[in-house]
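Handout for the seminar on molecular recognition.
Each group receives one record of this type.
Step one: identify the two inputs.
Step two: read the structure output and locate the region that could contact fe (ii) ion.
Step three: write two sentences on what you found, then compare them with the reference statements printed after the record.
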Amino acid sequence: MDGDVRINPYLSGNFAPVRSEDDFDLEVTGEIPAGLKGTLYRTGPNPQFDPRGDYHWFGGDGMIHAFHVEDGKVAYRNRYVRTPKWELENSHGRALFGSLGNPMTTDPVAMGQDSGVANTNIVHHAGRLLALEEGHMPFEMAERTLESKGYATDYRGKVTAHPKIDAKTGEMVWFGYGVGDMPLSAGMSYGVTDASGKVVRRDDFQAPFAAMVHDFMVTETYVLFPILPLTASLERAMSGRPAFAWEPEKGGRVGVMRRDGDVSSIRWFNVEACYVFHPMNAWEADGKLFADVMRYDSAPLFPLADGSPGQRTAARLVRWTFDLSGASDAIKEEALDDLDGEFPRFDERLSGLAYRHGWYAADPTNAKTIKQTAIAHLDHKTGKRQVYELNGGDMTSEPVFTPRSADADEGDGWLTAVVWRAGENRSDFLVFDAQDVAKGPIATAKLPRRVPFGFHGNWVAG
Ligand SMILES: [Fe+2]
């Protein structure tokens, strides 16, 4: 990363922050389906002040963008997540923390203070709206007003930004990495929040090596922890080299544990060095585990251990198979798709179960960039793929599925996405028929300004 904020690509174009908190009634063209009622919450990094020193895209303050849909209308509201970091910097009127909590560039005023930015995901569970970032506790927000309520301290430590909600039990299953007294450690945690919102399990264990563990997989009976060689090192960071770096020689490991088992029973499978930010879904059948994941040949957006830039790389969907009854600890891998993609989603009523339909943001030019200029739907049963391509450099956020009704068939419903209109430098909220994305949006709600590129979002019905 270049330390000069004037040319940092993650502070320019539609990566640049918006610094106003607004309420807009959006102008709708087309028809918002009468049955579509609820809110799409989205989040992403949006630094309150110009950053100090190096800025990594993952390090900006979280901002929630809510699109509330009701009676064919769309209302937009955005608010910062007022974390302790946000409050401290706000009171000083400038940035105090180094990017990703980097102690080398942190002002003495902020040294040792909580550096959480709550910028990665926004999840609704057991009546609570939680802004998540992988290095800190969940941060609770008010559903309608987006008022900041504070850390959900009952979680007692770091929680992933990618919890899974068990479709059958309503439990929220999660993990943490870099857990323990020392930052950038191999310490991991595994936790469960029951359907009523009570944290009922939190166990700690050690990964084979310290790594950035962005996401994980959960099936009905098992949990899978991918430890891939985007390694973490405090020693490296303190010597001025990257805190996180691509070290393929370490190979990849995936820990498999029964959800009713102890963390000491984790079985480690092996996979060739690769990186995965996001799985689509995982499930179990006939003594095997299956996981569909967006696989990169190497970790994008991160340097090598000596600080030199990593390779340009893009993800494609592959299926991992784990044979639990066999003696081999090798993971079988097969390609499912030939289109560069990211932000895979599915009908989450099938979370942890065999499923048919998936959606993702795609780059139809396969140019190994993070330019997501299309939305794709993949039908795993027929192998058919539909793609809706945007024009003129427009780019999409992660597409999010919402079912037509609670008991609708799998994949019967709508897909929502926020699209940046490059030519006008503003954004639109789009609604698609989830089974026919190629025909384009059935409704478009126009924002008067842009929504910066972000990470994740979720639909909350009602
Ligand atoms: Fe993510």
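Reference statements: Confidence is low (pLDDT under 50) at residues 1-6. The first strand starts at residue 23 and ends at 25.
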